[in-house]
Amino acid sequence: VSQSRYTSVHNYAEELAYQIEVKYDRITEDLGDRLRGLEAESFDRVLTRNNTFLFMMNRCLDFLKGIATLHKIGRVHGDIKPDNALLFPSREKDSVVLKVSDFGKTQLLGAAEVAPYKGNARFCPPEQLLSQKGETYSCALVCIQALESLVLGPEESSLLPILNNTNHSTEVGLFACLASHPSIRKPVKTSPKQFFSRQLAWLSVRTRDKDPSGQHLKDNPVNRATHEIIGDYIQVLCSRLQQSGQCSSETAEQIEVLLKEMIVPNPQQRPDMDSVQGKWDGILQKFILEAAK
Question: At residue 67, does pLDDT exceed 90?
Answer without folding.
Answer: yes
